[in-house]
Amino acid sequence: MEAPPIPPEYVEFVALLYHEGRNVSRLFRHNAASRKTFAGLAGLPPDEAQAWDRLISLQQKAATTTLSAAAAQEVFSEALGCSVTDLANLFGTDGWHRVPNLGGARWAAIAKSVEALADAIDKKDEPAAATLIEESRLMHHNTGTVKDKLAKLKAKRR
Questions:
Q1: Mean pLDDT over the full length of the chain
Q2: Is-contact 56 27, C-beta < 8 A?
Q3: What is the predicted pLDDT for the residue at 2?
């Protein structure tokens, strides 16, 4: 029996975490994040539409894997040099207080939800995965919901 495809929502959520994580460059000025760990991520364009466009090819590549959520996430990790766990830890640091409306505790919670979704996908727990997808969509970040942020980024797609 062929493995079910990785839910496209998972790939989008992972891309969204990396998209927000690109703001790590603002923490470098305050020595509040590791340049070694996050240099690749900080290399994404500061413009949100341009950064999202750059993440599209990674999303497309990650979406083709049927191996596991971990394998889909690895596409981003290899390209940008850090993992979703690294991002969850990054978003959980106090340095974000110095850059209002970026990163921070709400993004840390979103990253942890995406990690839980990956677990559910890899354990083939479809009811838990469906619940986590819906909950993740409705989670609030600094200026709205995940669902609204994704819609805004897709609308800006060139």
A1: 93
A2: no
A3: 55
